[in-house]
Amino acid sequence: MESKVEAKKVDPQGRIILPADWRESEMGESREIYIIKEKGYLKIIPKRKVDLTEYFDKVDLNVGAIENWKEFEKRLYGMRSYARALGKFDLEKR
Fold first, then answer.
1. pLDDT, tens digit, for every residue of 8-37?
2. C-alpha gyration radius of the chain
3. 69-85 residue pLDDT tens
4. Are 32 and 47 within 8 A, CB to CB?
5. What is this structure's pTM?
6. How far apart are CA 32 and CA 36, in angstroms?
7. Which residues contact 22 (CB under 8 A, 6 or more apart)?
8. How far is CA 61 from each of CA 11, 26, 58, rounded to the nearest angstrom?
9. Are 49 and 30 in contact (CB under 8 A)?
10. What is the pLDDT of residue 18?
């Protein structure tokens, strides 16, 4: 959809009519939107349901093949100094 500017009137209760083509293409069956208030303007974003199953199995850590957990942590978190800098992982004690 290309960007367009449309002038709309606001009724006494503060309502506007969203363009029909935008409602059909962007909102689908949902009738909820997010309104983000910025200084001088509003952003209207359709609220959509996200199908999280789309992201399942995208990252394969090969957990079944882990024989040495310390080695796995080193590879997962990168350098030991980086892990220590985070203050969450002390790989020397594990």
1. 999 999 999 999 999 998 888 888 999 999
2. 25
3. 777 777 777 655 554 66
4. yes
5. 0.49
6. 13
7. 1
8. 55, 35, 10
9. yes
10. 92
Q: What is the DSSP string of the chain?
A: --------PPPTTS--PPPHHHIIIIITT---EEEEEETTEEEEEE-----GGGGTTS----GGG-S-HHHHHHHHH-SHHHHHHHTS--TTT-
Amino acid in the structure at residue 27: M
> Which residue's entry shows tokens 């293409």?
25
Which residue has tokens 């949902």? 30
Q: How many CB atoms lie within 10 A of CB 41?
A: 7
